[in-house]
Amino acid sequence: MTLSVSLRHAFDGFDLDVAFEVPEGLTVLFGRSGSGKTTIINAVAGLLTPQSGRIAVGDQVLLDTARGLCRPIHRRNLGYVFQEGRLFPHLTVAQNLAYGDWFARRRQTAISKSAMIEMLGIGPLLGRRPGQLSGGEKQRVAIGRALLASPSLILADEPLAALDDARKAEILPYFERLRDEVAVPILYVSHASAEVARLATTVIALQDGKVLRQGPAAEVLGDPAVMPLGTRGVGAVLEVRVRKHHADGLTELDAAGTALFLPRLPQDVGTLIRVRIPAQDVILSRTLPQGLSALNILCGEVESIRSGDGPGAIVSLRTQAGRVLARITRRSVATLDLAPGVTCHAIVKTVAIAPEDISGQVG
Amino acid sequence: MIDWLGPEEWQAVVLSLRVSFWATLLSLPFGIFVAFALARWRFPGHALLNGLVHLPLILPPVATGYLLLLTFGTQGLVGGMLEQLGIVLAFRWTGAALAAAVMAFPLMVRSIRLSIEAVDPKLEEAAATLGASRPWVFFTITLPLILPGVIAGAILAFAKAMGEFGATITFVSNIPGQTQTLASAIYTFLQVPGGETSALRLVALSVLIAMAALLLSEAVARRVARRVGSA
Asked: Which residues from chain B sit within 8 angstroms of residue A74, using beta carbons?
């Protein structure tokens, strides 16, 4: 099933005009605050009626302003995971999970209740009330509640934004399992690039109410035009396979023939994973460096150079392993005489690939 | 108890309880509806409705009673129509209940409205995304969450109804056994030489009932609040 969206909505000097398709898997609406992410997801949910547009899930039309059709929220068959969880405080966890059932003229569930409780590890919480749960537990219950409504579409509006890093790490794997195990399109709003790199199958990058770029995650996130200059967010995503665990505590990865080394990873040999390489942790060299402590060196050809108002520039390098981004100064660009077509080497310190930037298995 | 109170005093107490009970019970759905409308909806006449609801709180009770008589008396516009249906309010205990309900209504609405404003509409949105239609959202989410406010409002209204005097005596007079409530009875006893002891007994009883109502409301509200918990 596919979600197709086309919307136009103008308010407070802001024009939203987007059209895109959300295939199965996890699609991230990615952009800065004010880019229109939440407006879009709320229009899909029915919490906001856009001035004009059409929204359909498969052959189910949710909104078609041209035909004067707008299906009410409660008949849109959604599972919405909100940023703040929004559990019902007067109901127990079990009752919160069952809430969707109360109104079911509904189809069989995509996932059985017991399997879902097992997957989210919320069995011990069933008798409690939301007031007695931690932030991470609440969010797990919220995911379960949305799933048990047997939705034909799952929406998530920055579901991790209110959590600290430890809690984020607790929830992320559940979204990965959702992406890999539930055959329903997931539309996920986020502005955190590490989260996007890890979860997204498809990325729709938004800017000022327009779709800037859409496509497979690695492609969009590796496009320097998508990422604003000067932020920590810029970074390329590589898909790599675990090749070998070495005795000295390193794991060797195979990036399309090039070897990369990371501190020991938990994944089994042969597993396909994603690593995100933050642009600011990449050093460029025109010659193959000798006598350097860094283990990871990728050779490639400069594809483009983008410089902003500040002293920085983002160099996009096409390597055998995929696109790699490097954030260096404009002065270095001039000194190294970098230009599109020039061959150079990207040096990544092993430790520069932070653990939170490594995703589990790719779908 | 019956020995302790004279038959006339006893009658007044029972009548007051009956009047207050029905006044509270029957006005409660309207109170919830009006509080919801005032808290959540923006419509032309919002300020007017708000003013109308609060009017009995500010107007002299005698004026309210007189307006009730003009409207619901047998010669009145609404009273005339009701009489066709066999319902007479003026100078009956049912009229006393109406007067008490009108007088207590602002207190009830204020209490319920405050609790509705404290409910996060985002929870109601979440319920809607899970398949609940508007009425279901109200009965499964909003109503349980505002229950402490509803109970507090109801008990406040009941206590107010028990003590209502001005509007009642104007609208339904002071007929022993029919419209003589606790407050009117105290007033009557004070007008009669040697009636002070009866009046005092009723005053003591009023204090007792009022205190019991307040303690009960506290206890119930605490219980419900604990059950509802915090988000």
From this structure: 128-134, 136-137
